[in-house]
Amino acid sequence: MARNNQDTYASYQRDEFDNPPQGPVGAHRGKTSLASRIMPYFIVVIVAALVGALAWGVYSGEASHIRMPWSTSASSSAPKAKSAAPSAKDKTDTDKTDTPSTSASPSQKDSESPEASSSPSSSALQQTVNKNTAIVVTNATSISGHAAQRASALTQNGYTSVSSRNASGQIPSATVVMYQNEVDKATAQDVANTLGISLVEQVPTIAGPVVVVLLD
């Protein structure tokens, strides 16, 4: 015959677990505040905004202009280095500004034509030559009518007061065009060019403004 054991609640000995305390048992959570409930959503919105701003900055290239806190010292020292050591171009520009140019540069002098540097400018002579100046052509040669012939050449060149005569008194050693005052220098030079005479001298003691002495 099989044994039929039926254990019931009353068959066990009672202990402290059979007399639980009154009231709720276990962990209990109190009411949470409104700020605590919305804080996770707020954090999610902030993180999403930062991620969106970072993505836009990388895509548009604006992220390269953002200054990081650790780059402040490097960026602030750069202008000091630049101001302490100006570039060669800035120094050259400063020298050009502070030092006014008082003479033409060698390159400008070299660019002038040889004709202008070797002889007076024709336009300058025309501005100062006075063809109404009294000019005396003296003949110190043995050729008769030589002074009159050369005087005629001056008249054909536009001179209005030209006379000729034979030389007397002290005679120079070479054919020369002499002028009395500085204002007659340009006229004397033009007379010399017209007659093909190379020597032009200022002699304050001559009898007229311009005197030509022909020895050949």
UniProtKB/TrEMBL annotation:
What range(s) does the LytR/CpsA/Psr regulator C-terminal domain occupy? 133-214
Q: Which InterPro entries match?
A: LytR/CpsA/Psr_C
Bias class Polar residues marks the residues at 1-11
Alphabetized, the UniProt keywords read: Membrane, Transmembrane, Transmembrane helix
Tell me the superkingdom of the source.
Bacteria
Q: Where is this region: Disordered?
A: 1-28, 71-128
Biased region (Low complexity) positions are: 71-87, 114-124
Q: Where is the composition biased (Basic and acidic residues)?
A: 88-98
Which chain regions cross the lipid bilayer? Answer: 38-59
One protein family per Pfam: LytR_C
Leader sequence residues? none
List the protein's name.
Cell wall integrity and stress response protein 1
**Which species is this UniProt entry from?**
Bifidobacterium mongoliense
